[in-house]
Amino acid sequence: MAGTKAPVGQVQDRQPGSEEEMHPQPDYMPRFAGSDRLKDKVVIITGGDSGIGRATAILFAREGAKLAIHYKDESEDAEITLKHVEEEGGEAFIFAGDIGDPKTSEALVGKTIERFGKLDVVVNNAAEQHAQDDIADISEEQLTRTFKTNIFGAFHLLKAARPHLKSGASIILVTSVTAYRGQPLLIDYSSTKGALLSLIRALSGNLASENIRVNGVAPGPIWTPLIPASFPEEKVETFGKDTPLGRPGQPNEVAPSLLFLACEDSSYISGQVLHPNGGELVGG
């Protein structure tokens, strides 16, 4: 049964963190057979080496997608994700780079078009977070870094992708439950996720006349490498236990929400957000 594994207290000293160093390992493999819902669709996924990105890449491959999998610098995790994607029969490549740098998005989109000839789905998933007890402790460097990755990176990617997106394309932004109710230890992170929520709403209206859909997913506490890379050991050990379901979610419990928004099952949905968050009630 998904989600039954409890986190063990642990800490990683760098972001985005390594999935291979986590214990227990997150659940990222798809739970059901594919049905060609993304057959021959070309998809870019940022932060696709681990966590929600890895689970999404593997699920999309099972559904027939061709994938450009971006990652920052966790090469071992990215290679493992690529291996699973290829085992699902997916055609894919991995691409390293800082998503906060506009040249990364330009090169990523360029290689995707060169390799596959088109672009159908864009998944903006890459993110970072840094816990601080007090807003006074958030340095200018941290603030700039968090915004560059989480919100500037989304703009860079969408600007680079925009000329290649045709009628029927889908854009998915991974925001967070923190966009709705905040997180006292993640003030700057929550702010960027709120900005992504507004971006979903604004861009969906901007692109609706061209039949390009823009939606989001707002996960709650999900067991990914960002958790031991962000919080002290005692916080990691109790991570997710305060949700109504009493546990953190697993990446493969979030990926189906992204699949739904990527495929034609959601053809009449735009400007909306799905909430795989363990039962927390949030608005909008």
From TrEMBL:
Top-level lineage group: Bacteria
Region entry Disordered, spans: 1-32
Keyword Oxidoreductase: yes
Keyword Oxidoreductase: yes
Gene3D superfamilies registered for this protein in UniProt: NAD(P)-binding Rossmann-like Domain
GO terms for MF: oxidoreductase activity, acting on CH-OH group of donors
Name under which the protein is recorded: General stress protein 39
Encoding gene per record: ydaD
